[in-house]
From TrEMBL:
It is a multi-pass membrane protein. The chain crosses the membrane at residues 25-48, 60-84, 96-125, 137-157, 177-200, 225-242, 248-268, 280-298, 318-336, 403-426. One of its GO terms (cellular component) is plasma membrane. The lineage of its organism: Bacteria, Bacillati, Bacillota, Clostridia, Eubacteriales. Belongs to the ArsB family. One of its GO terms (molecular function) is arsenite transmembrane transporter activity. PANTHER family: TRANSPORTER ARSB-RELATED (PTHR43302). Involved in arsenical resistance. Thought to form the channel of an arsenite pump. This is Arsenical pump membrane protein. Signal peptide: none annotated. It comes from Sulfobacillus acidophilus (strain ATCC 700253 / DSM 10332 / NAL).
């Protein structure tokens, strides 16, 4: 009976989260789901405490990083970077494609995939329209920016909310995570750019006239905040490294940096601080707790144990199958039921496996890769993709779900395999 209730509640909550009926936020949906899980006896108060212990650092870090991104965007930081990259293309279409892809990867690395997808995409669209590119070239560059945002959100703990949740659950410090995933992310970037180029090569323009764009310095709306931001971001990066050495939560440093940015920007005529605070993704905190309480119901019903047995079966055949199998399972589940619940379901299952510590850690990284890349297969794979499609539609760029799925599955599967192969090889080199 508990299994039926746990599965039924999970399906209903997940459907409402993806569907997002008018007036019903994902935060309230997940919160109600969590309360129902308690009322129905699917989870206990101890489970709720365990969930809060897992997600509080992840969600607060994510909110802080997005808030920093919003302030930098208002100051003109990202537009300046995009214009600089466009100028570096020297009027060559293929170079524009490559530079914008590299910029997307860098933004995803430091400001999370949501920042890359939701903040950078409108800037890329504005540049494309200023360049006067045709609809086919526009679609190619827009799809590339959205794809890169997720497939290259692997290198740092803060590059994706999925990364933060997994790193916290498996106690993977910032430096350790980076050592394992940064080289893998470089491979993911190369594979993504190659796959995107092969798919869209006929649509990319041979020449572009970057003289039609404004100069990068013209994009800076608050020079003081722009200059100070480099210092704050540098100190934030140092703080991330210190988080592992001092055994402090990453959110302490990300939150401190966000507060400094708010203080520096408070009197800026170009940065609407109060509005940006309201726009920060606070609902993600409620969503994470509520959603993972519901997911714990699946564990209590014994369903994650079934998945752990499957993972044990893969590990029996060696580390290669453990890495590739875990990654593809995570990608498949993410594509059909969203990557946020998937990362925790898989993490719970990995924790229950009977493998040695080295294989278990590699599985944890493979789970991250699958949950970062898998959402690109379908539009419902991540909340960021649904929001990204909405951003495009508001700018009169409509991408059907059928087209997205056709492109997503064609590009994602080979990139996912190559990236998991890189993880397996690199893990062997550094010894787990």
């Amino acid at each position: 009976m508990h299994s039926v209730l746990a599965i039924g509640l999970f399906v209903v909550v997940l459907t409402l989260v993806i569907w997002q009926p008018r007036g019903l936020s994902i935060g309230w949906t997940a919160a109600v789901g969590g309360v129902l899980a308690l009322v129905l006896g699917i989870v206990s108060w101890a489970n709720v405490g365990e969930v809060v212990g897992i997600v509080w650092d992840a969600t607060l870090t994510f909110v802080a990083v997005i808030l920093i991104s919003l302030i930098l965007d208002a100051a003109g930081f990202f537009e300046w970077a995009a214009l600089w990259m466009a100028r570096a293309s020297h009027n060559r279409g293929i170079r524009l494609f490559l530079w914008l892809g590299i910029l997307g990867a860098l933004v995803a690395m430091f400001f999370a995939n949501d920042g890359a997808a939701l903040i950078l995409t409108p800037i890329v669209i504005a540049e494309i329209r200023a360049l006067g590119l045709n609809p086919r070239a526009t679609l190619a560059l827009v799809m590339a920016s959205g794809f890169i945002a997720d497939t290259t959100s692997l290198p740092l703990v803060v590059s994706n909310l999925v990364n933060i949740v997994s790193a916290d659950y498996f106690h993977l410090g910032f430096i350790r995570f980076m050592v394992h995933m940064l080289p893998v992310d470089v491979v993911a970037l190369a594979a993504s750019l190659t796959a995107l180029y092969l798919f869209y090569r006929r649509d990319l323009p041979n020449r572009v006239d970057t003289a039609a764009l404004k100069r990068p310095e013209q994009a800076i709306r608050d020079p003081r905040v722009f200059r100070v931001s480099w210092l704050i971001l540098g100190l934030l990066l140092v703080g991330y490294f210190l988080s592992q050495i001092l055994h402090w939560p990453v959110s302490v440093f990300a939150g401190a940096a966000a507060l400094v940015f708010l203080a520096v920007s408070y009197r800026s005529p170009a940065i609407p601080v109060t509005r940006l605070i309201r726009e920060a993704p606070w609902k993600i905190v409620v969503f994470s707790i509520g959603m993972y309480v519901v997911v714990f119901g699946l564990r209590n019903a014994g369903l994650t144990r079934l998945l752990s047995r499957l993972l044990d079966g893969l590990a029996v055949h060696g580390s290669f199958w453990a890495a590739v199998g875990t990654g593809f399972i995570a990608a498949g589940l993410s594509s059909v039921m969203n990557n946020m619940p998937t990362v925790m379901i898989d993490a719970l299952a990995i924790h229950q496996t009977a493998v040695n510590a080295g294989i278990r850690e590699m599985m944890a990284y493979a789970n991250v890769i699958g949950c970062d890349l898998g959402p690109k297969i379908t539009p419902i794979g991540s909340l960021a993709t649904l929001l990204w499609l909405n951003v495009l539609e508001r700018r009169d760029i409509r991408i059907s779900w059928g087209y997205y799925f056709r492109v997503g599955i064609t590009l994602t599967l080979p990139v996912l395999f190559v990236t998991l192969l890189a993880l397996w090889g690199w893990s062997a080199v550094i010894g787990g």
